[in-house]
Design brief:
heterodimer, B: alpha+beta, ten-stranded mixed β-sheet, seven-stranded mixed β-sheet, 15% strand
Chain lengths: 112, 897
């Protein structure tokens, strides 16, 4: 059995994936992982493997869908894209996250 | 929405597990390759590019594992795996699996069957809306041991008015009714019900209407009485004719009009009866003719009263209110009859209310205790089966101790291992339950038939319902835990270290840990002894009941009722009819002797009359019957003095009576009673003979003082009597001859139904018979199961001691000593278990006391014999392992070390 990761982290990764798919359009797993690394400016060391359970989780919720396609270098790869539900949820998820971040920030400033 | 969608996709994933795995592999491979390609573009060598890609990816296996956990339903998959594993374990030892499943099926099946009986008779509410509001009304009197549920019509009519407590109150009384068919009258089970009966039960008709208070009037309506029929009767009698409403039925020679049909689900207010026709209460004088309970008024207590409480009125409130109303109701019922009122008040006449949701049947009271006893025996049997399986599993898992300890050492959690081991016992429990459930309905039907032998019209719905399923599930779960938990806990309790150290088969350390299996086996032996003692007591008692001197010879006697109360012939002419019927039947080949009687021994009825003599002071109650000439000869009751009745002993020739020996000694001590007179209600009756005593209403009670009146002097004009015939050979031809004769000589009467006197005796002790049969059956099973358990555990234990035995023999132990060594194991268990069982038996056998005949609950012989039987079983179970141990060759044994 795998260890459960903290919910916040899970949510973070999920949101990053969603946002990536929103800006980049359909992407394969590697592409999503690279994009996240690039956007975070390498400040976030991501084990690329952890992205797959996250992708599965989002699929199970029906927020994203997947299909097999061919990469620009002519390789068979699975491409993920946002579903209609997923597109609607991004905004809400982003707001949630901002609220948490803001709350966190208030705490950090208050205690310093 | 999300959780449901996730669950669905997870479950869906279970079914394409291998597909998903392959797909993930492909996807991850593509990922690594894409990464490696990009790295190569940045100038790394092929090898370096790939290593870097893998590094960035992190653990591939971990990713796969967490992906798998995320994708499926881990608990379910694990469970399925455990079930498959358990199946394999059971398949590896089919002997054990079969024993386990069969013993459990037996225990659970028997428990389910008996619980179904208890459920059908005592627990299941009537199939009517809001059965919990139903209330039975009854009364108590200090001179009656039990509450009385029978009411007379006048008192019921007053209770019917209690609208302050009840929305409706109903009186009902079941009765066999004669319904005219094209081929003469037929006996049909029916009920007489008051106007509010159907309203009280809150049911709706299948078609037509229900009986109402307007139908329940003296003499019926202008068109005669209305009748409501059951769906079954509609089917069998009218072939489901849609125009049945308004059709005529001739019941007891009177016209009735069908006004409604009740659905099949409606069974009336008695769970053991299924009336086919319902007539108004006021039809009673017609149905019972020539008797008339309505006219008998206050003195005929013939109906049950059920009521529906008003919403908001609790049972207790109704009870208190009725109790307070007892005396006013009594006085209003019989205004002016001061003597009777005083008699009732002196005996603290008190009305009361009891729950009526299960309806009412006297069988509920009669069979409660026997069923509880049988249920306890059965539960003991199930417990024994579980203990047995637990000890067998313990012995088996001892062989797996090393495997389990190794798995523990390698990081398996104990919980996980216990889960896996429990799955095996769960599997046994489920399979055993399924097998038992398949047999249960047939068994409970058979038991119900056995129990209700004498109630020819009684039927009990023992079908499985939710309550039975709940019972079965709970018992199966308890059984599973009992069977599996102890062995599983024990098997996983040790660590590898200890296990490896004890590898050398040094039994000294193992000795201590075998205490638990011994305790379990000892308990099993104790339970087995308990069951054997119970069976011994009940069976001995039954044998003594059968061997008891009845005073007559039941073998070869058949009897059947002749329903003469609804045909045309009466009085002296009827007597001549009986005489000629007897003569004609007597001429049938195989018939030795024919007679008639109003009450035959053990037919379920009892009639006492009070007599005085000029000699003895005070009154004496004698048990009565009216008999025809040759009754004593037919029954083989010895004539001690005087003469038998004659057909010529008419009313005009003066009242005559025959006493039995006890009555003669009671009324005329030391005198010749023949020719003396006794007095009943100021009438003087001449004693013309003395006959031997016979058991009267029950086999249990010694023959009471009794007297016989001649049927030729019966004041009733249209009496129905039993025809009693002694026959040689099989009853078959005589039965058909008797029917043909009845059809020829009295075409109107229903075809007589014949029983043998032996069957009548059997039926009169049906509880005792059922208890004894089941107890013996359970005891036999218990002995078999215990033998298997003792053998199995000893065989396992001995096999594990092969090395030790080899050493002992190498050191000079003789074979006899080895045999003794092995034998001792079970001898100790049997001795301790028996002692415990005996102690419990001495206490608990008292519960049987009221069912035992001619034997004390602590009969020493039964106890000794039971212990001897168990000792025998234990020895038999130990012989093979002991011999096998003695055959151990020291060299081979040591080499396997």
């Amino acid at each position: 059995m795998g260890e459960d990761r903290p919910d916040v982290l899970q949510g973070t990764l999920d949101l990053m994936v969603l946002k990536t798919l929103e800006t980049m359009g359909p992407q394969h797993g590697y592409g999503i992982a690279r994009r996240i690394e690039q956007v975070s400016g390498d400040s976030l060391r991501l084990n690329q493997g952890t992205i797959y359970p996250a992708l599965l989780r989002l699929q199970q919720r029906g927020w994203i869908k997947s299909e097999w396609g061919v990469s620009e270098s002519n390789r068979r790869a699975k491409y993920y894209s946002l579903s209609r539900i997923g597109r609607k949820r991004i905004e809400q998820e982003a707001r949630n996250w901002e609220r948490i971040a803001a709350t966190m920030a208030r705490f950090l400033t208050a205690s310093s | 929405m999300d959780p449901i969608r996730i669950l669905f996709s997870r479950i869906a994933a279970l079914f394409r597990r291998s597909n998903l795995d392959a797909e993930l592999d492909d996807e991850l491979r593509a990922h690594i390759e894409l990464a490696a390609e990009e790295n190569r573009k940045r100038g790394l060598s092929v090898e370096e590019a790939r290593t870097a890609a893998l590094r960035e990816f992190g653990g591939v296996t971990q990713a796969k594992e967490s992906y798998r956990v995320q994708s499926g339903v881990p608990i379910l998959e694990q469970g399925l795996r455990d079930i498959r594993f358990a199946f394999r374990q059971l398949r590896k030892s089919p002997g054990f699996a079969l024993t386990a499943i069969l013993t459990l099926a037996l225990g659970l099946g028997a428990n389910t069957a008996i619980f179904s009986l208890i459920n059908g008779l005592l627990l299941r509410p009537l199939p009517v809306p809001h059965a919990d509001e139903l209330t039975m009304i009854r009364f108590t009197r200090t001179d009656y041991a039990n509450p009385v549920y029978g009411f007379s019509a006048p008192m019921f009519r007053l209770l019917e008015k209690r609208n302050d407590l009840f929305t409706s109150v109903a009186g009902f009384s079941r009765s066999m009714m004669q319904v005219r068919s094209s081929s003469g009258n037929v006996r049909v089970s029916g009920a007489m019900v008051s106007g509010e009966f159907f309203e009280t039960l809150g049911v709706q008709p299948l078609m037509g209407r229900l009986l109402t208070p307007q139908d329940d009037r003296k003499g019926g309506t202008s068109t005669g009485f209305a009748v409501v029929i059951s769906e079954g009767f509609w089917q069998s009698w009218f072939n489901r004719a849609p125009d049945v409403l308004g059709r005529r039925l001739t019941i007891a020679n009177a016209p009735f009009t069908v006004v409604g049909v009740m659905p099949r689900s409606f069974i009336g207010a008695d769970p053991t009866q299924r009336p086919e026709i319902y007539v108004p209460l006021w039809a009673e004088p017609v149905i019972h003719a020539p008797y008339n309970n309505m006219a008998a008024g206050f003195h005929a207590w013939w109906m049950l009263v059920i009521a529906r409480r008003k919403p908001g009125i609790t049972l207790e409130q109704a009870n208190v209110a009725l109790r307070a109303a007892s005396n006013p109701i009594l006085e209003e019922t019989i205004p002016g009859d001061a003597t009777t009122i005083k008699k009732f008040r002196d005996r603290h006449f008190q009305l009361g209310a009891t729950p009526g949701s299960q309806g009412y049947s006297d069988l509920q009271f009669r069979f409660l205790e026997p069923l509880v006893i049988v249920f306890s025996l059965c539960a003991a049997m199930l417990l024994l089966a579980c203990l047995n399986l637990a000890s067998l599993l313990m012995a088996r898992s001892a062989a797996r101790e090393r495997e389990l300890a190794t798995r523990l050492a390698m990081g398996a959690t104990r919980r996980r291992l216990i889960q896996q081991l429990m799955m095996e016992s769960l599997l046994i429990a489920v399979l055993g339950t399924a097998a038992g459930m398949m047999a249960a309905p047939a068994v409970s039907r058979t038991l119900a038939a056995l129990l209700m032998g004498r109630e020819h019209n009684a039927s009990l719905d023992t079908s499985l319902d939710l309550r039975v399923f709940a019972f079965v599930s709970v018992s199966a779960i308890v059984a599973c835990v009992l069977i599996g938990l102890i062995p599983a806990l024990r098997a996983t309790a040790k660590n590898l270290n200890e296990q490896i150290k004890s590898r050398s088969h040094a039994t000294s350390a193992g000795e201590r840990k075998r205490v638990l299996p011994r305790v379990v086996m000892g308990l099993e032996v104790a339970l087995a002894l308990l069951l054997v003692v119970g069976a011994g007591l009940l069976a001995t008692s039954l044998v003594r009941l059968y061997r008891t001197g009845l005073g007559f010879d039941p073998k070869g006697v058949v009897n059947f009722g002749l329903d003469m109360n609804k045909q045309g012939v009466e009085g002296d002419a009827l007597m001549r009819w009986y005489e000629s019927y007897g003569d004609s039947l007597g001429r049938v080949p195989g018939v030795l002797s024919v007679a008639f009687a109003s009450i035959t021994p053990m037919d379920g009825s009892d009639w006492t009359s009070t007599f005085k003599t000029p000699l003895s002071n005070g009154e004496h109650d004698l048990h009565m019957s009216q008999v025809s000439p040759r009754f004593f000869a037919t029954m083989r009751v010895p004539q001690m003095a005087g003469r038998d009745f004659r057909w010529e002993d008419s009313e005009a020739s003066g009242s005559k009576i025959i006493l039995n020996q006890s009555a003669a000694e009671l009324l005329f001590p030391g005198l010749n009673p023949v020719g003396q007179h006794i007095v009943k209600d100021r009438n003087s009756i001449e004693v013309i003979g003395v006959v031997g005593d016979i058991r009267y209403a029950t086999i249990r009670d010694t023959a009471p003082p009794g007297a016989y009146l001649p049927i030729t002097q019966d004041p009733e004009k249209k009496s129905s009597y039993w025809c009693v015939a002694r026959i040689a050979g099989s009853p078959g031809p005589v039965v058909s001859a008797a029917r043909l004769l009845a059809a020829k000589m009295a075409p109107e009467i229903p075809a007589p139904v014949m029983t043998t006197m032996s069957a009548q005796l059997d039926d009169s002790i049906s509880s005792e018979r059922m208890m004894a049969m089941l107890a013996v059956f359970f005891a036999a099973c218990a002995l078999l199961v215990t033998a298997i358990g003792l053998y199995g555990t000893l065989a396992y234990a001995t096999a594990r001691r092969t090395g030790e035995i080899g050493i002992r023999m190498a050191l000079g132990a003789r074979r006899a000593q080895v045999v003794a060594l092995v034998f001792r194991e079970n001898a100790w268990i049997a001795a301790c278990g028996s002692l415990l069982g005996l102690a419990i038996a001495l206490f608990s056998a008292r519960a049987l006391a009221s069912f035992l005949y001619g034997i004390s609950a602590n009969d020493p012989w039964v106890m000794v014999e039971s212990v001897a039987i168990l000792a025998l079983i234990a020895s038999a179970a130990s012989i093979i392992p002991a011999i096998r141990a003695a055959r151990v060759e020291p060299m081979t044994a040591l080499r396997t070390e």
